[in-house]
Write a structure and sequence with these properties.
mainly alpha, 32 helices, 71% helix
């Protein structure tokens, strides 16, 4: 409802209405009203954070902390969940660290596992408020590792119910922002396998904890590039500069990716991919793309159903999510046999998502990988060739990249175009009133890249063997004798 309020005036009216309801419940002396309002605000903080934060007025946080101190189970439960949800903004985290840390520690000593695990997640969230910045540590050194060990005990114990294991996974999703925790978790095979098993259930409530942990382990989140001039300016102004932990280096991240891929992480991601949440779909695509970065692991992804799950992820989701999924598909299409990776109709279905990477706004590497994958698909069968040729945007983009300055991108585009020359549709296109054959002749005279010459001469051989019109068009180029 809040997201439907497109202008500020409507949003303010909704905030005022919710504020009125909050005030009424707070004025009621009964404990039931207070429990209800805390549950309502927890729901808002989880699903509409902006609206939820507008209700965190002075006194409400204090009331939550008082409820957490009580001996009653339901009050402790709702208060601990509310404190976890409230600790999303830096200023609130600071206030909770100052006021509520002792309360969370007391709740953690509870004999009831459901209270204990929620207090643990609250402590994990507060402990991870420094993010991946190695210099920021809200708690003493070593605290994050101890909290991770506590989460591990809940996670690996098969006697614990699924709710407790879900909360343990959520605790790890915050703690794994710390590079030392990531390393220790991946080295602990029992804990990692338990996390993957939790993911394989495909349950909605485990999704965030499992996926956020995997994104942190693989370092597949966006990293902000720091401008050197801004860095010097920050040093001069004595402003805090984030430091990256040495265990977050690419070498360490790659080792972690290899470890979790061998443990079968793709199966868990496939189970979770049925979600409709675009943000969750993006996290799944990020992790799969990080795994597909390694050519040797792509076969595992295909075996465990990753290539099938990636197609819908590439067609629907956030911009970043669809790009990551399309990139993973392209990488699979380059090194794996397309007949095995994309059997049957899937070989045609995969063309549209891969061709999305031909957009000039995408990075050069994405363009290159897309062209390589489409070239492989073009060599598969007539159905895939026709699908590529009938998609006007796709074939237009391939032909545009044949004029690209970058040597590798141009080579991939020419090779892809050559593979399409087997099709009668491509022959008819070249017979029309255009300079496609003429440009192909000119490419045969390319003295920079011999692979382009091979591809162009192959295309010309196929076109001229299939059509007399194409034979005549060869002589339209004035340099045909020099080029050939």
């Amino acid at each position: 409802l809040y997201e439907q309020m497109y202008d500020d005036r409507r949003r303010e009216a909704l905030i005022a209405e919710v504020g009125k309801f909050t005030q009424e419940k707070l004025m009621d002396p009964g404990m039931e009203s207070k429990v209800r309002i805390v549950v309502a605000i927890t729901t808002l903080l989880t699903n509409a954070p902006e609206l939820g934060n507008s209700q965190l007025k002075e006194g409400l946080l204090e009331m939550m902390l008082v409820m957490a101190r009580s001996d009653e189970y339901i009050q402790q439960l709702v208060a601990s969940e509310a404190i976890i949800a409230a600790a999303s903004k830096k200023k609130d985290v600071t206030a909770i660290v100052n006021q509520g840390l002792d309360i969370l520690k007391t709740l953690y000593k509870s004999t009831n596992d459901h209270i204990k695990v929620r207090a643990l997640v609250g402590l994990c969230k507060l402990g991870a408020s420094g993010g991946s910045d190695a210099a920021l540590r809200p708690f003493a050194d070593g605290s994050s590792t101890k909290l991770a060990e506590a989460c591990r005990r809940f996670l690996v114990n098969p006697e614990k119910d699924s709710d407790l294991r879900r909360w343990a996974a959520e605790g790890l999703s915050f703690l794994t922002l710390d590079a030392e925790v990531k390393e220790k978790l991946v080295e602990d095979e029992a804990a990692m396998r338990a996390l993957i098993e939790v993911g394989k259930t495909g349950a909605q409530n485990v999704m965030y904890g499992v996926l956020a942990t995997l994104v942190n382990i693989t370092n597949s989140y966006d990293k902000q590039e720091i401008n050197p001039e801004m860095l010097e300016l920050a040093k001069f102004a004595k402003h805090h500069i984030p430091e990256e932990h040495e265990l977050d280096d690419e070498d360490f991240a790659d080792k972690r990716i290899w470890s979790i891929a061998k443990m079968g992480v793709t199966s868990a991601l496939v189970s979770l991919s049925k979600t409709e949440s675009h943000n969750m779909r993006e996290l799944i695509a990020r992790v799969l793309n990080a795994v597909c970065k390694h050519a040797e692991l792509r076969g595992l992804v295909v075996q465990q159903g990753g290539s099938k799950a990636l197609i819908p992820l590439a067609l629907e989701g956030t911009d970043k999510g669809t790009r990551c999924a399309a990139s993973a598909l392209a990488r699979i299409g380059i090194t794996q046999d397309p007949a095995i990776a994309f059997p049957g109709q899937r070989s045609c279905d995969v063309i549209r998502p891969i061709s999305l990477l031909l957009d000039p706004e995408c990075e050069g590497l994405e363009n290159f990988e897309s062209l390589m994958a489409l070239g492989n698909l073009g060599s598969l069968n007539e159905s895939t060739r026709k699908r590529i040729l009938k998609d006007g945007n796709c074939i237009q983009a391939i032909e545009n990249f044949m004029f690209e300055d970058h040597e590798l991108i141009r080579r991939a585009a020419v090779q892809c175009w050559t593979n399409l020359c087997v099709s009668d549709v491509q022959v008819k296109r070249c017979e029309g009133e255009n300079d496609k054959v003429k440009y192909c002749v000119l490419l045969c005279g390319d003295d920079v890249d011999h692979n382009v010459v091979k591809a162009a001469s192959g295309a010309l051989a196929m076109l001229t063997s299939a059509s007399n019109k194409c034979c005549k068009k060869v002589f339209e180029s004035k340099q045909w004798n020099d080029c050939l």
